[in-house]
Design brief:
single chain; 113 residues
Length: 113
């Protein structure tokens, strides 16, 4: 039996389909009904068909970090990344110069022999 507020035939069919799918997955009848009802209720809330849907749509869930950016999960900050790029560019240029020096010394030692 679908949740109380479900009136449309489509939602009733979806409830039955979800319940049958969960039973095929090996869930108990009670658990399959719970999952199906929760799924249908979630869809109804997203569509604005429930009383509490207005509150959730206004500002439910986690709050975003300042500036609308996602909080990073432990990576470096934007400032650290920018300076890191400069450091690596400096390292690359110093590598190039040392390589060219090494090749030039090798070349000169080869000439001596």
């Amino acid at each position: 039996m679908p949740p109380r507020g479900v009136t449309s035939p489509k939602q009733k069919r979806q409830y039955e389909h979800i319940k049958d799918s969960e039973l095929k997955e090996g869930r108990s009848t009670a658990r399959a009904k719970q999952i199906a009802a929760a799924t249908i209720n979630k869809q109804r809330a997203e569509a604005g068909q429930t009383k509490t849907s207005g509150r959730k749509a206004a500002g439910g869930g986690r709050k975003k970090a300042a500036g609308g950016r996602k909080k990073s999960s432990g990576g470096r900050s934007a400032a650290a990344r920018k300076t890191g790029g400069r450091k690596s560019a400096a390292r690359k240029s110093s590598r190039k110069t040392t390589r060219s020096r090494k090749t030039s010394t090798r070349g000169s030692s080869a000439k001596k022999k």
